[in-house]
Amino acid sequence: MSTGTFWLISIVAAVAIAFLLPRAVRGARAYFKFRGKRLVTCPETHRPAAVEVDAAKAAVAGAATAQHLELSQCSRWPEKAGCGQECLRQIEAAPVDCLVRTIVTRWYSGKACAICGKIIHEVEWLGHKPALRNPEGKTIYWDAVSAEKLPDVFATHGPVCWDCHVAETLLREHPELVVMRSPKWYP
Ligand SMILES: [Zn+2]
After folding, report:
1. Number of other CB atoms surrounding residue 108 within 10 Å
2. 142 CA from centroid of ligand 1 (Å)
3. Mind listing the pLDDT tens digit for each residue in 45-56?
4. What is the pLDDT of residue 187?
5. Rounded distance from Cα 153 to ligand 1 centre (Å)
6. For a 10 Å CB count at each end of the chain, is N or C smaller?
7. What's the CA-to-centroid distance between 44 and ligand 1, angstroms?
8. Where are the domains of the chain?
9. What is the pLDDT of residue 162?
């Protein structure tokens, strides 16, 4: 390769990177900003609906310094798949606040476990996930509840730490494996 060709290729590559890199960064920012399940108030029913923005399309538009939001999922679909998606305005106005992840984190944060009283400081998403206890005392993981039902469930259920949920589940499903000892047996 001649020196002239080398420099020509280098200049073309540098121009291409200078052109593409900012677009890639903007696209990635839009993708991460709009991905994830969110809770909105459906403008038609005034009830919670769980929705997801098409983050890939938002990223493509974001790369070209535009904003394009459309839903890829809604808990009211397929019945209401042709709706006007007016709820997107709520997402534009507060993209972080309506994330299910944010709502769940804020609800648990600083609450005491309804069984052992331990404060739940942080929500673990994969391993030791926190749970909920219904008024009858049965515990379930929070993500076993459909996202659109979470606001109602949060109003009627208590927070439960992972340890207590596991112990309660074992007691409920395999009582023969559990030995209850009175605390008075211990000094
Ligand atoms: Zn507990």
Report:
1. 21
2. 14
3. 999 999 999 999
4. 46
5. 19
6. C
7. 39
8. 1-95, 99-187
9. 96
